[in-house]
Amino acid sequence: MSAAGRWRWWELVLWALVLVSPLVLAKHALIINEIAIVALFALSLDLILGYTGIVSLGHAAFFGMGAYAAALFAKLVMPDPLVGLAVGIATATLLGAVCSATIMRGTDLTRLMVTLGVALILMELANKLDWLTGGADGLQGVVMGPLLGRFEFDLSGQVAAWYSISALLLLFVLARHLVHSPFGATLKAIRDNRLRAMAIGIPVTRKLAIIYTVAAGGAGAAGALLAQTSGFASLDVFEFHRSADVMLVLVIGGVGWLYGGIVGAVVFKLMQDALSSITPQYWTFWIGMFLVVLVLVGREKLVRPWTWFRGGKSNAGGQQ
């Protein structure tokens, strides 16, 4: 585990390039910010899908809760971004702890329906509580204060991009430490064979509750970042397409590999941006076509550049 958790030279170079990207690619700072948020959202889902084997179609519930918590906190209490981010994470984590009881029983199909139902319930609550959330019109008038008391959020999106990238890096480091710890090893054991894990004394129920709660906090952080950097929160953050899109991101990048969410987010967002500018009505068709080719041909044949860094492993559970 210590060898697998050791940072490699290419990772340090990669993160250095990511951190300077808002400066070098200043005209594209806004999409860099979006990529960082989607990557963080995918990273949180990969903790339960790739490392634990929990399939969820309602991960948007925690994303949306984090978004609304951060937006309401900025509007009603104080506009400090870091405190608002902490509030968004805490609120989503609390929701994840409550909802973790729903994944303990039943099959994967049962979990799919239950997690999807939670997101739909929260979306309807946000719609009905329009006096608080703005309902279908969204929560408007969210104004964020300067980051660290010095850096104002600019229209070009550079400060927002650095803010989101920094949050992504911090939570990536925490997730990396988690999956390469003894706790992470037990999660993989549960993923591979739950009955055998129970037989050797692993407290499966408690481990599942913990990782589900942690993943919910990560999704809440992504939602909070979206609300803070856009200054707006709407029912869209609870929509099914949020959960579906982040699943597609992991299909593209690969599960059981923390960088899979980041690579998938880059490919997905760049394709979405490019295709929607060329064919606004049919860009989803071409993304769907790409996914079909990806599945039929095989990811390892399309993504040779990064499989080398993974030691030739492109399946779930590969090295970081």
Structural write-up:
The radius of gyration is 19 Å and the shape is globular. The longest helix is centred in the last third of the chain and has 27 residues, at 204-230. Helix 1 runs antiparallel to helix 7, helix 2 (29-49) packs parallel to helix 7 and helix 11 (240-253) crosses helix 12. The protein has 15 helices and no strands. With 320 residues, it is an all-alpha fold. The chain has helices spanning 9-24, 29-49, 60-76, 81-99, 108-128, 130-133, 158-179, 182-192, 194-199, 204-230, 240-253, 258-278, 283-297, 299-302, 304-307. It has one domain: ABC transporter involved in vitamin B12 uptake, BtuC, CATH 1.10.3470.
Topology:
Elements: H1 9-24, H2 29-49, H3 60-76, H4 81-99, H5 108-128, H6 130-133, H7 158-179, H8 182-192, H9 194-199, H10 204-230, H11 240-253, H12 258-278, H13 283-297, H14 299-302, H15 304-307
What distinguishing features does this structure have?
ABC transporter involved in vitamin B12 uptake, BtuC, 320 residues, 15 helices, mainly alpha, disordered C terminus, 69% helix
Quickly describe the structure.
This protein is mainly alpha-helical and 320 residues long. Helices cover 69% and strands 0% of the residues.
